[in-house]
Amino acid sequence: MQLTKKIEQEVVSKIRDSETFKNAPTSRGLLQYLYEATKRGEHLKETVIELEFFKNSQTDEKSNPRVRVNIYNLRKKLATYYASEGSADEWLLKIDKGQYKVRFVKKQVPAGWVQKMSWTQILPYALLLIASIVLLVNKMPLKKPLLWESFLDSDTSTNVILGDHFGAMGKTMTGGRGWTRDFQINSVDEFYDLLKRKPELQGVLRPANYSYTTRMAAMATQHLQQFFQTYDQQFSIRFSTQTTLPEIKEGNAVYAGPVKNDNQFIGFFNDANPYFKLSGQTLELSGHPTKKDSSFAFGTSSVDQEYAIVSKYPGIGTTEHFVFFSEHDIGVSATVEYFTDADSLKTFETKYLKGEKYFTALFRVRGKNRVDTDLKLETVVGF
User: I need a labelling partner for 269 at 20 to 30 A (CA). Which of 17, 113, 341, 357 fits?
Assistant: First the structure.
């Protein structure tokens, strides 16, 4: 049968309406868009797809992985479709690796005795073979990303420590009693030091029985949970104001949270990093053989653009730390998502690690919520 535009659209429509694509609206829409753009002869690239399909005019193709991630997911779904309900299709729709255009390939039927067999004879064996392959693939252990290898080792415990904020109970600005926060007071010891300096506050304020955290904690936990589950691993969750140094030393640790709460990981970060030092709300880069000395200020009032630090470094003994620092929510949320995505992880490892086990990276993050965040890598140093 000769391939026509009508047949092409029928192939696309059959895939979009299949069980495989039924609950994947983004993949369905992206498939139709790529087909129509290919027929129009458009020069498809990441920035074009980001602008035309995702309706985002503020993209940076070097740092935004959304197009690559969704194309990768679309290819996976096409493979799943042709391995199951589309196994008998005469025409195959393909999106070659590294390309965004679609093409159609006619399935080659083997010559000889197979042509004489009916599908009723072949189908049971084909389904058995497919089931065996799927079972085998599902039982094969996934290759662990280099950056997370020690954290995904079943013999090593991992604690995810979320940055929360110490607070006090007392008189509020409206005259009532409630929970208050001062970023200069980050522990019970600092609170009582304040009372020594200002005895007039005794009896007015007392340490609160609880701390607070922002939506960053929920979003970071969600990405980490999905990532660890992929490799059949688990972690424990703790809060920074309620975590002691001995608890941090007992295993690998992931910290996700702000720098303004003066958390204990800032000291570990400074001790382990040969070129970076974080003091207050300023990150200093100095002494590097090829990069010039620089400083980056975190204490900005803007909540839709900020710096975010991501660093993996050796902890105590044989343990390791993976930290995500920023001033506001968007920096931590966006970088945790980036470093738990298989495609962006692979790109980062290949392009920037180059054999180094540890690193510190500085990102500029823009956006007010998770779907709008945009990452730009400012600098990365391996060691």
Answer: 341
DSSP string, 256-307: EEESTT--THHHHHHHH-SSEEEETTEEEE---SSSPPEEEE---S-SSEEE
Q: What is the pLDDT of residue 274?
A: 96
Q: Using the Cα atoms of residue 264, residue 267, residue 271 and residue 274 in order, give the sign of their dihedral.
A: positive
What's the pTM value of the predicted model, to 2 decimals?
A: 0.61
Taking only the tens place, the pLDDT of each residue in 274-312 is 999 999 889 999 999 999 999 998 866 666 789 999 999
By CB atoms closer than 10 A (0-12, 13-18, 19+), residue 373 is buried
Which pLDDT band holds residue 187 (cuts at 50, 70, 90)? confident
* Residue 299, both tokens: 């204490």
Instruction: Work out whether strand 359-366 and strand 374-382 pair parallel, antiparallel, or are unpaired.
Output: antiparallel
In this structure, the number of other CB atoms found within 10 A of the CB of residue 106 comes to 12
Tokens of 259: 């720098």
Q: d(Cα 230, Cα 237) in Å, to the nearest integer?
A: 18
- φ, ψ dihedrals at 213, nearest 5°: -140, 170
**Between the ranges 17-31, 101-115, 177-191, where is the mean pLDDT highest?**
17-31
